[in-house]
Structure formats: structure tokens, C-alpha cells
């Protein structure tokens, strides 16, 4: 058994449970049908008696790596020999989802197809059919692989289940047909010398286990019968179901004979061996309501591999095509008029029982054999039909229908000439297949069509035609290059019946179809094609007339598109000029271009550029020596030098500057070469700025609008952008709610750390300094700052700092801090700080939860969200560095300085200072803390004042309200303006430099 190469990677799994369940279901059916039960038991008993299977008594079901084949019975009451056959299901899946068939190779096709065998069957005067008895079961399987062909069976419903192994090739497995046919071919090759005639029949006239063959005379027939039987016996096989067209009986039928008056069915065709004719019996549906599915089902029953009922099948196909064009669904009932038409067609199928087509298509000992082929097409279908003519002395009609083939036209509209060409190609393909199948000496092959256009295309070289026609003409010429094509009139063309289709009642006695035209010798028509026919000419390729003109500037335009490098462009032009010189002067220069060659190439490039952009100015200078008054170059006083280059005249003629500096070469503002020159200078000047770039370029060139051009080149330079990237920004967002609404001081705060700083724990010089940090807490609404000393970056130290802060300032509701990804520091201390700010441990989380404080981080990569506390850190460091500098303070000294700085920061003005005389006091964070700036001079005591001036509580309330009014009126209005990021910009997209 040929397993697939990847069999080792796959596992069949367990199949016992599946096979056991299938056996139980089988016995339920057998118990309901005693006849089937008897036949089933007899079949498997015969299987065992013939030693085609053996019982396995020591099968280990728990650790089995084989396969159990489920089986079921198929009843065939019409069968002569076997009424019931047990079939095996090798496609049943196991626990791993694989089946035996999934792991087996199918093998290749070794025998001829059905069409070829039936066609060849019709050439024998004496024909026979036979069948190899139990062919699969005559071929043994390697004993090591029988474990894959085990079955379960029991003699009765109450009996014990037994395990059997099938010892032969089993039908139902994927590889069985290949193994059987390969065995037959090997037998024929091994016994070729002993049985030459039978070996050829075994190789060519067998379709699986069915044999359809014969001989041209009775002696050959007898020899073939004897040889074939003996050859198969060498392989342990026998023929049965023998049926022959020979007139003798007893001498010719030593095998299992079917009977003289017998109509047998072989390869799907009904053959009456007594009359030696093919018969047809088509089953039809009795339903009166049809759907498209019913129509297709009925067409599938019209089994006719040789196309002997071609016109009837064509009509059925055309009807199905009509349903497709009407877009009728599969389950939709046909409209009444269409259903009535199909009902009439089905009723006419009963007439096919009256059709008898001779099997033998030749005459004994013909002088000449001629193959006639016809093709035709209509807008609905096209087809081809082939006849075989035996030329004899007698005047009888010796022409017989051999085969036909038809196809419906595509749903997409196709012209009739194209369909006629497709019919010709179909005829060519059918002719080639028939000639290969018959293996006869055909004296003439005459092919005909009634389309003059298709006939003219056939003789046309394919390269002159359009693709559709060209491909088919090329195939046709390859298939029938040695055969003759001619024209025939439509009334004499039997293929016309294929293209239109007819009912079976009109085909039964239609001799025009079964025997062809009356006289084949007078069929050819001399009709000539009208060469001006539109359909004929439309399939020829159009020929465009091309007029070649010389364009002197074409070379330069093509070359500048090759590169964006000015020096490379000069090198290419110089090499082109060198090639031209070599062709003219037989020069042998080689290597890199010389200095002179590069200078000549540069002059050529500049002249071509100026000629395209300053053509009018150059023409004016050549004619009258000056440019026109309306010229854009008039302020530069241009002139042409000795090489024809346009230069700046200017006002520096008397200076001692070099010639190129006094009279630089003019360049247009919008030209690729100008951009290439500026890019070149920008690169060799190490990507200098636009001002320096323009200065260096003007030492030789004068590009118009040069300043803007240089800026554009510098701005688009990737190297410059990488060296000085511009940070992408978007419009500044609105301030958050905590910044713009009145609230308790320090209710919403931002927190950050500064440090480390170093203090002395003792005044002795040798003692090392200790690191400390400053925790900066800032109120989001009033900018009030609170500074706390922190001994380290642990959770305990941070919790202690927050407790001290809340004990002095009150409990806060919300704390904001930086995100660790905002920092770029690399020191260990900074890294520890980031971890503390981003990854609070369980102790810190519990503290926040108990105090009902919300801790939030600003978004990653957005430090501007924490600008408020970043400014606080900056302000603290401003005072600290100026007061402390590098002095190492003690703890008390450091704390004193820290608290003083806190007071200064809380006394800074929140709004700009006013020059108005009335504005005697400014708003500071201290107003929200103590009602005045922290550093304000103490006011006189008001204790001695009378209370009747103003109630003290009302006085305090008024004071607070005044402060918040001042905050809302002046401070908030100052936050209204955006000082940067003022415009909305497009978001970054693919292709932008960032």
C-alpha cells in the first residue's frame, strides 16, 4: 500500500470504537431485513472460504496501531452474479481526525480513458466484453500492512465480535484502483513474449476490470480469447461475464457466458451483442414541477460518452443555459411556459429506446478508410461530429457516426465567427483524440466547416491575429497541420444539429445524423470569403503607422532623469561624448573621463539648460546684443561668452575678482539641474547653512531666486534634519479643571523631587556627607509651594514627608507626578527616584488608600503636563544655588534655608506688577495661606479698635473673598493667552521627517 511520505509525522489514532459502533448500527439494519442478512453473511463467509481474509485471535485492542475498516452492504438486484456486495469505508476518521485514505497515495492513471476504449471497441468486426472475476481480491497485500485492513464481524447479534484482517487489495481504499491496474500492466509486461496479442489487449483495452476488445476475423478472435484467458491465469485471475458478437456459440464461449440473446451494460453503455448495436434507456423523473436542480439531475442521467445522442444532449444543455441567463435559482420552480417546454423534452426521451446504433463502424476489407469531420456553431452552442467511411466495391452506404462533442456558448456574448472558430478547434481536438484511440491506418482526414471567416482565419499566420483568435488558430494548426480543411454548405453539415439541438423523437429516424450526408464526394463548396467582411477584419491586429523624427534634445532629457547627482551627470555625458568620438575618429581612450572631457560635458549641460529656459534672451543677445526691456534678466545685464554660456554682466567688470565671480553663470530658478548643483555644493560644504551655501554658489553660478532655493535645499536635506531635528508640536491644550477653579489650598497638588543634596551630620571634617532630597509640593490652583526634606527615596520616607505636609497644610485630595518615561537621567539616584514615583509598593498604596488620596501620573513623553512643578523645582534651585553654592550645611542650617526659600516662593507675585497708584498690593500664594505675603512687614495691632467698626468674622470673610476675587479677575486672565504652540497642525503621518 503506497503511504504518503509524511506518514511518520501523522498518526491514525484509534479506530476500534468507531468500527464497533458502525457494526452495531449495521446489525440493526440486518435484523430488519432477513434477506440482506443472509446475503451479507454469505458474502463474508465466501470471503473467508476463499482465504481473502483471516481471523486474528491475539489482537491487542488497547495498543493497536492499525486501522479498522467499517463496512456496509450495497444491494444490486439487477446484477447477474452478485446481488449484494459488501463495501469497505476507508474514509472513516479515527480519534486523531485522519482516515486510512487520507494517508494513502491515489497513484497515477495508467489506463486509457473511457472515450478511447469505447471508440477502439467499435473498430473490431468480432467484439467481446468480459470482466475479471474478483480482480481486487486476486491481488495480495504485503503481510506487514494487513493491520491497516482489519474488520469487525459477528455471525449473529448475540455472538462475540471477531477481528479479521483482509489479505487482498480492498475496494474502498484510495490506492486500490492503482494497485489493481498496475498489477495488470506488470502481468502484461512480464508475459509479453509468451502472449503478445493478449498482452497488448491487457495494456490497451481494459478499463479497470472490464475488457472491451475484439479482432478483425474469427481466427484472430479465437487466438485472442485463448491467449487472454491463459495470460490472466498466470496472474491467478479468470474472465467471466463473457459476451461476444460472434455468430458461433459453443466453441467460442468456454468462460462464464451471459447468453446469446442478452443486452449487457458495459462501461455505462447498453450493447446488444446479438444485433451488435448500442441501445439507450434513459430513466426520467415523474415529477410535474421542476426546478433548475431537477433539470441538471435529468441532464446528468444522459450518459453518452461517445456523443451518439449529441443533438438531444445539446438541446438539454441549451435549456440549462437559458435558465442561467434568466437567473433562476436552484430551488426556484420554473415558470409555467418553461416547465411545459422541459416536460415535453422529457416526454420525448422515451423515443431513445427506438434508437439502435451499429457498434461496428467499418466494412470488412475496405480499400480505403476516410475520416470525415464537421463543425458548426450558433449563438447558443457549438459542436463537432466525426464519421468513418469505408470505401468498398459495393454501392452500400459505408459511412457511420463515430462520435461527437458539443458545448454551449459562454454566458458572455461572443460573436458567431469566434464560436465557429471554437467549433473548429473542438473538431481538431476530437479528431486528434479519435486518431490516437483507433490505432488504425486512416487514408484521408477531411475536415469541414460552413464558416468562411473561420476557414480563412485557420490559414492565417497566428501572429497577425488578435489574442483570442490567435491562440485558437495556433492550437488548431498544431493539431491538424497535415489534414485538409474545406468549406461546406449549412444544409449538408450534420454538425448543425449539434449547434441547434433537437428532440429525441426527431433524432430516432434521422439518417442524416447517423450516416451523414448522402454523398461525401460532392460536399466541398467553392464559396470564397469577402475580404472586406467586418467580422473577418476585426480580428486582425491593427497596424499603426509610425513616423520617426529626430529630436536633438531627446538625449539630454533622458540622461538627466537617470541620476540626481550633478557630478554623476557630468560623468555620464562625458562618456557619451567619448563614445561618439570613438565612433567617428576610431579613438582608443579608456578609463575615467579626463578634466577636459568633464569641462566639455559641463558646458554642454549648462548650454542645454539655458537654451530651454532663457531661449528668448539668448536669441535677443545673438540678434541685437541686448535683452528686451521686459526681460526678467534685464537688471543683471547678461551677455554670452565665447562658449555660448549666458553670464551675469553686472557692475563689477573693473574689480580684481576672478572671472567666474565677476560674471557667474546664470541658472534658472525651476530646473532639476539647478537643484542638483545646489545639492552638490551643499554636500561639499559639509551641509552649511543657506547663507553660506548661497555665498559659495555665487562664486561660479548665479541661480535666480537663489536665496529661496538654498533655503529649500537645506530644509529638505535629510542629513541636516537629523543633525538638528525639529520637535513636532500640536496646539497647546486647555488648562485642567484643578488649575482654573477655586479650591482649598493644597487640595490638588503636584509633587516632584530635587537632589540629591549633601549635608554634614557632624562638624568634624573627616565625617562623610550624607545625601538628602527635597520634596517639592505645589498647589495646582494657587501655586503655593511646600518644601519637605526627605532622607532617602524609600516609601517610608515619602509617606513621612506626606504626613508632615498634611499635618501642616491639611489633607490633599489629588496628587499628580511625573511619569518615569519623561526622564532621561542615567545616575543611580535618579533611577531610584523614577521607580519610587512610578511603582509604588504595597506600603505606599495602603497609605494612599487609607488617606483617600488619588495619585495620578501625567502621560508618557509629555513633560509639559508637569510644567507647574518643574518651574517650582527651577525656582527653588535658583535661590538655593545663589545662597548655598557649594557649601555643605548641617541639617538645621539646610532646613532653615529651605523654609526661608519656601517663604520667598510663596511671596512671589502671581500677576504682573501694575504701575497704577491704586494697586498697592499684589496677589501672592501667601495670601491664600495667611492672608498676606509671607515676607510682608507686620501690620499695627488692631486689638484696641472698637468692634463696632466691622464684625471680625465678616472682616475675615471679606478678606478671603477679596483675595479669591483678585485671583479670578487678574490671575486667571493671565492664563488665558497661549505663549507657544498656538496653531493646530496635522498629525504626523508616514513619509514625514521626524
From TrEMBL:
Positions in coiled-coil regions: none
GO CC annotation terms, alphabetical: DNA polymerase complex
GO function terms (MF aspect): nucleic acid binding
Domain Integrase catalytic: 738-933
InterPro entries for this protein: DNA/RNA_pol_sf, DUF5641, Integrase_cat-core, Integrase_H2C2, Retrotrans_Pao, RNaseH-like_sf, RNaseH_sf, RT_dom
GO biological process: DNA biosynthetic process; DNA integration
Pfam family of the protein (one): Integrase_H2C2
Domain of life: Eukaryota
The protein, known as: Integrase catalytic domain-containing protein
The organism of origin for this protein: Araneus ventricosus (Orbweaver spider)
Amino acid at each position: 500500500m503506497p503511504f504518503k511520505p509524511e506518514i511518520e509525522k501523522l498518526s491514525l489514532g484509534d479506530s476500534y470504537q468507531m468500527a464497533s459502533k458502525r457494526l452495531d448500527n449495521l446489525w440493526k439494519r440486518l435484523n430488519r431485513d432477513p434477506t440482506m442478512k443472509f446475503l451479507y453473511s454469505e458474502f463474508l463467509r465466501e470471503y473467508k472460504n476463499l482465504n481473502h481474509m483471516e481471523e486474528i485471535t491475539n489482537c491487542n485492542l488497547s495498543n493497536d496501531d492499525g486501522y479498522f475498516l467499517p463496512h456496509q452492504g450495497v444491494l444490486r438486484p439487477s446484477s447477474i452474479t452478485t446481488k449484494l456486495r459488501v463495501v469497505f469505508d476507508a474514509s472513516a476518521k479515527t480519534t486523531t481526525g485522519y482516515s486510512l485514505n487520507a494517508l494513502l497515495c491515489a497513484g497515477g492513471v495508467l489506463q486509457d480513458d473511457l472515450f478511447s476504449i469505447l471508440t477502439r471497441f467499435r473498430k473490431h468486426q468480432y467484439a467481446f466484453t468480459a470482466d475479471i472475476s474478483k480482480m481486487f481480491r486476486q491481488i495480495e497485500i504485503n503481510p506487514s500492512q494487513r493491520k491497516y485492513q482489519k474488520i469487525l464481524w459477528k455471525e449473529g447479534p448475540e455472538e462475540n465480535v471477531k477481528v479479521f484482517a483482509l489479505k487482498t487489495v480492498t475496494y474502498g481504499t484510495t490506492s486500490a484502483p492503482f494497485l489493481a491496474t498496475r498489477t495488470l500492466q506488470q502481468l502484461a509486461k512480464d508475459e509479453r513474449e509468451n502472449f503478445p496479442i493478449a498482452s497488448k489487449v491487457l495494456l490497451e483495452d481494459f478499463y479497470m476490470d472490464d475488457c472491451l476488445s475484439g479482432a478483425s476475423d474469427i481466427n484472430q478472435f479465437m487466438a485472442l480469447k485463448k491467449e487472454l484467458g491463459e495470460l490472466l491465469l498466470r496472474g491467478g485471475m479468470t474472465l467471466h461475464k463473457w459476451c461476444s458478437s460472434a455468430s458461433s456459440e459453443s466453441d467460442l464461449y468456454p468462460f462464464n457466458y451471459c447468453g446469446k440473446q442478452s443486452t449487457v451494460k458495459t462501461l455505462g453503455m447498453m450493447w446488444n451483442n446479438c444485433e451488435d448495436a448500442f441501445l439507450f434507456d434513459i430513466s426520467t423523473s415523474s415529477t410535474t414541477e421542476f426546478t433548475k436542480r431537477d433539470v441538471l439531475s435529468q441532464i446528468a442521467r444522459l450518459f453518452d460518452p461517445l456523443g451518439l445522442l449529441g443533438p438531444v444532449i445539446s438541446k438539454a444543455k441549451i435549456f440549462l443555459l437559458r435558465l442561467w441567463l434568466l437567473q433562476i435559482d436552484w430551488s426556484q420552480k420554473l415558470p409555467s411556459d418553461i416547465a411545459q417546454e422541459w416536460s415535453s423534452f422529457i416526454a420525448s426521451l422515451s423515443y431513445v429506446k427506438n434508437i439502435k446504433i451499429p457498434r461496428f463502424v467499418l466494412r470488412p476489407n475496405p480499400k480505403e478508410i476516410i475520416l470525415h469531420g464537421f463543425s458548426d456553431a450558433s449563438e447558443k452552442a457549438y459542436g463537432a461530429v466525426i464519421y468513418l467511411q469505408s470505401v468498398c466495391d459495393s454501392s452500400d452506404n459505408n459511412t457511420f457516426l463515430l462520435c461527437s462533442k458539443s458545448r454551449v456558448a459562454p454566458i458572455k456574448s461572443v460573436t458567431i465567427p469566434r464560436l465557429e472558430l471554437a467549433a473548429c478547434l473542438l473538431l481538431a481536438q476530437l479528431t486528434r483524440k479519435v486518431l490516437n484511440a483507433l490505432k488504425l491506418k486512416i487514408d484521408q482526414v477531411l475536415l469541414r466547416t460552413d464558416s468562411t471567416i473561420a476557414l480563412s482565419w485557420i490559414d492565417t499566420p497566428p501572429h497577425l491575429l488578435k489574442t483570442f483568435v490567435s491562440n485558437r488558430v495556433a492550437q488548431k494548426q498544431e493539431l491538424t497541420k497535415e489534414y485538409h480543411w474545406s468549406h461546406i454548405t449549412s444544409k449538408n453539415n450534420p454538425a448543425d444539429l449539434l449547434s441547434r439541438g433537437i428532440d429525441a423523437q426527431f433524432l430516432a429516424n434521422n439518417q442524416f445524423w447517423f450516416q451523414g450526408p448522402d454523398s461525401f464526394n460532392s460536399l466541398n463548396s467553392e464559396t470564397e470569403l469577402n475580404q472586406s467582411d467586418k467580422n473577418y477584419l476585426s480580428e486582425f491586429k491593427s497596424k499603426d503607422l509610425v513616423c520617426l523624427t529626430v529630436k536633438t534634445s531627446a538625449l539630454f532629457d533622458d540622461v538627466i532623469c537617470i541620476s540626481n547627482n550633478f557630478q554623476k551627470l557630468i560623468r555620464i555625458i562625458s562618456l557619451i561624448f567619448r563614445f561618439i568620438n570613438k565612433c567617428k575618429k576610431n579613438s582608443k581612450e579608456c578609463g575615467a573621463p579626463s578634466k577636459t572631457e568633464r569641462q566639455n560635458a559641463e558646458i554642454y549641460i549648462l548650454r542645454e539648460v539655458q537654451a530651454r529656459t532663457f531661449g528668448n534672451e539668448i536669441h535677443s543677445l545673438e540678434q541685437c546684443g541686448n535683452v528686451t526691456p521686459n526681460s526678467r534678466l534685464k537688471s543683471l545685464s547678461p551677455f554670452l561668452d565665447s562658449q555660448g554660456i549666458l553670464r551675469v554682466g553686472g557692475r563689477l567688470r573693473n574689480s580684481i575678482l576672478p572671472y567666474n565671480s565677476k560674471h557667474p553663470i546664470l541658472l534658472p530658478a525651476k530646473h532639476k539641474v539647478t537643484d542638483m548643483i545646489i545639492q552638490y555644493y551643499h554636500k561639499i560644504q559639509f551641509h552649511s547653512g543657506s547663507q553660506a551655501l548661497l555665498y559659495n554658489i555665487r562664486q561660479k553660478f548665479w541661480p535666480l531666486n537663489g536665496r529661496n532655493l538654498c533655503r529649500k535645499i537645506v530644509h529638505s536635506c535629510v542629513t541636516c534634519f537629523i543633525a538638528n531635528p525639529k520637535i513636532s508640536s500640536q496646539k497647546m491644550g486647555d488648562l485642567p479643571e484643578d488649575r482654573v477653579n477655586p479650591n482649598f489650598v493644597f487640595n490638588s497638588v503636584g509633587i516632584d523631587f530635587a537632589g540629591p543634596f549633601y549635608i554634614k551630620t557632624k562638624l568634624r571634617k573627616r565625617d562623610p556627607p550624607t545625601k538628602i532630597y527635597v520634596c517639592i509640593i505645589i498647589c495646582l490652583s494657587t501655586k503655593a509651594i511646600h518644601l519637605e526634606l526627605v532622607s532617602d527615596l524609600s516609601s517610608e520616607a515619602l509617606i513621612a514627608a506626606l504626613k508632615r505636609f498634611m499635618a501642616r497644610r491639611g489633607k490633599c485630595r489629588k496628587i499628580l507626578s511625573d511619569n518615569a518615561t519623561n526622564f532621561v537621567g542615567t545616575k543611580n539616584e535618579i533611577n531610584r527616584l523614577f521607580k519610587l514615583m512610578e511603582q509604588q509598593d504595597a506600603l505606599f498604596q495602603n497609605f494612599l488608600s487609607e488617606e483617600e488620596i488619588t495619585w495620578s501620573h501625567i502621560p508618557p513623553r509629555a513633560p509639559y503636563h508637569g510644567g507647574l512643578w518643574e518651574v517650582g523645582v527651577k525656582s527653588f534651585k535658583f535661590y538655593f544655588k545663589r545662597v548655598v553654592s557649594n557649601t555643605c550645611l548641617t541639617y538645621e542650617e539646610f532646613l532653615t534655608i529651605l523654609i526661608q526659600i519656601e517663604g520667598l516662593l510663596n511671596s512671589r507675585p502671581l500677576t504682573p506688577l501694575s504701575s497704577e497708584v491704586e494697586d498697592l498690593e499684589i496677589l501672592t500664594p501667601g495670601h491664600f495661606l495667611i492672608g498676606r505675603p509671607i515676607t510682608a512687614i507686620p501690620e499695627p495691632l488692631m486689638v484696641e479698635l472698637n468692634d463696632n467698626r466691622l464684625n471680625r468674622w465678616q472682616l475675615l470673610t471679606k478678606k478671603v473673598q477679596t483675595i479669591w476675587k483678585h485671583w479670578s479677575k487678574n490671575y486667571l486672565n493671565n492664563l488665558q493667552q497661549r505663549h507657544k504652540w498656538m496653531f493646530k497642525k496635522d498629525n504626523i503621518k508616514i513619509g514625514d521627517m521626524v
